[in-house]
Amino acid sequence: MKIDFESGIPIYLQIADQIEDAVLSGIFPEDTQVPSTTELSTLYKINPATVLKGITLLTGNGVLYKRRGVGMFVCTGAKEKIQARRKQSFFDDYVASLLSEAEKLGISPDEVISMIKEGAKND
Questions:
Q1: Residues 71 and 86 in one domain
Q2: Residue 88 pLDDT more than 80?
Q3: Full 3-state SS string of 17-63
Q4: Prediction pTM value
Q5: Would you say residue 4 lies in a domain?
Q6: What whole-number distance in Å separates Cα of residue 48 and Cα of residue 51?
Q7: Band of pLDDT at residue 2, cut at 50, 70 and 90
Q8: Mean pLDDT for the stretch of residues 50-69
Q9: How many helices (H) and strands (E) does the chain have?
Q10: CA distances, 37 to each of 10, 18, 122 (Å)
Q11: Structural domain that includes position 87
């Protein structure tokens, strides 16, 4: 995990996103423990309250749960929850605006799909 202190994205959101990324990539499978607030705050030399804010966000989103006296763990089904939320966000942030712009330019949905397929071939 890496924190970008120059980014306009709040540090607690960066922490939450990176823990989610680790869940998605399998670094933190379901029911495994994630680093503690103290470990993360020491590692990145940031305020523990900032880390706690990110952890609290993930707890509220059903990604993490607390085992009293033990620490924070990845919830069952967390990966699917993250994927569903991020897919919706991807649609809202990219696809909807892409289709809106295509409509303004007179580009049909089929043409958009062809353009995407062509772009994917070039990568």
A1: no
A2: yes
A3: HHHHHHHHHCCCCCCCECCCHHHHHHHHCCCHHHHHHHHHHHHHCCC
A4: 0.83
A5: no
A6: 5
A7: confident
A8: 97
A9: 6, 2
A10: 17, 14, 43
A11: 79-121
